[in-house]
Amino acid sequence: MQRAGRQGWQPPEGGPMENGVGQEPATPEPPAGPAAPRAPRARPRLVFHTQLAHGSPTGRIEGFTNVKELYAKIAEVFDISPTEILFCTLNTHKVDMQKLLGGQIGLEDFIFAHVRGETKEVEVTKTEDALGLTITDNGAGYAFIKRIKEGSIINRLQTVCVGDSIEAINDHTIVGCRHYEVARMLRELPRAQPFTLRLVQPKKAFDMIGQRTRTGKSPGEGRVASGKETLRLRTQGPAVLEEGPSPSEEEAAQRVDDLLESYMGIRDSELASTMVEAAKGSPSVAQLAQGLDSVLGEFAFPQEFVAEVWAAVCHPKGDKE
User: Where is this region: Disordered (predicted)?
Assistant: First the structure.
């Protein structure tokens, strides 16, 4: 048996020294065989910060792949039901429809969830065909008011505000209906016959009480800034990590969104982006009509609207021939 001397313990002869610890000699490596397959690259962990718009601590959410799962994750953090959430805005707690969470979230965006507040009923008499409402939805069952046209029928009703969710028309619940279905129902109501809207307003923070937001048109409404990596959400299907839209794609989507409002009374940035993608891959109006019918047949777009979309994307005004 060896004993430690004055110089301290020494490793066995031939053993390498590493950090003062003796190791066995390295064994010869076996002959190189076929290279082992590389492990798949791990997806980045996407964590977003969130608060309730009327005030709450900050929470963290991750692991959602579509809009409904996003709402479920937010609800879990704050111990509420997902059905309490009316819509979300990005980077502001205010009911700002220009900051509405639509089809894309920037990786650095802060999510504010607007939850159910007071319920109210209003009686409306349709004195003209258009009520002056633009409808959108949250992708999880609630349609709400995105814009009120100045001078319109609804504009004269002070109790109706941008951000109000439409819960029922004449006591017929429309929860679960898409925005275009709600817009169609309102368009088809007879003139001169009063009807009742049951609305749910978002719960307001103290500094938001008394506001009646009216948003004007703004370039890039509801869109994240271009050049950023974003998480694109879909009403159905998984989320996709991609680069933000280019300025030309944003402009085309804005033009299509304007057409959706003028023809159907809805605004939907995700739908507009989908239609831009379809139009760019269609060499003619007829092919665009076939493509839209295959993926968006429930909208029943009229032929003249499809022609306008194709022209807005492929031959916008100002383009040189």
Answer: 1-40
CA distance 86 to 143: 8
As a whole number of angstroms, the distance between CA 197 and CA 167 comes to 8
Same domain membership, residue 251 and residue 197: no
Kindly write down the DSSP assignment for every residue of 22-37, as one continuous string.
Answer: E-PPPPPPPPP-SPPP
Domain carrying residue 121: 47-202
pLDDT average, residue stretch 12-25? 41
Indicate if the pLDDT at residue 288 is higher than 50. yes
Q: How many residues does the chain have?
A: 321
The model's confidence at residue 124, banded by pLDDT at 50, 70 and 90, is: very high
In a domain, 308, yes or no: yes
116 and 186 part of one domain = yes
- How far is the C-alpha of 104 from the C-alpha of 97, rounded, in Å? 14
Is 267 in a helix, a strand, or coil? Answer: coil
Tell me the per-residue pLDDT of 41-88, one tens digit each, with 9 for 90 and over. 444 568 999 999 999 999 999 988 888 899 999 999 999 999 999 999
Same domain, residue pair 166 and 68: yes
Sign, Cα dihedral of 76, 81, 82, 88: negative
Query: Which single residue is written with the structure tokens 């969104």?
Result: 257
Q: Are residues 54 and 188 in the same domain?
A: yes
First to last CA, the chain: 95
Q: Alpha helix locations (H) across the chain? A: 67-78, 179-188, 247-264, 269-280, 285-296, 303-314
d(CA 94, CA 246): 27
| Number of domains within the chain | 2
8 A C-beta contact, residue 54 and residue 206: no
Tokens standing for residue 248: 């030309």
